[in-house]
Amino acid sequence: MKYTPRIYAKALIESLAKASNGKEADIIKRFLVSVKRRGDARLLPDIVSAVREVEHKRVGGRFIEVAFARRHKKSVLDAFRALFAKHDEVVFRTEPELIAGVRITIDQEREFDQTAARRIKKLFR
Are residues 87 and 106 in the same domain? Predict the structure, then answer.
């Protein structure tokens, strides 16, 4: 049975929560060996993202991804970051396939998509 990154993330977080002081590094090492042995090493970046997401939900924050079609100045990124609470984690991505505009995803559940790619796709439906 293959496991999703979210299942791996929850298992790691539960294991670390039950760990005694000083054993965290050993638990992480064994976790990585287990993931590799199952052939899921390619999922590690997704597992790390899922761990961050689960932890943010636990403390009351949200995980927010903001995708732009091109790079922007720091002032624009700071303006977007100011729209959200301080305990929210805001990640910026550059995705050229969006053509223009912005896509904001909150907790991978809600999406605000104001991109040219979406509008073009909508025109040709």
Answer: yes
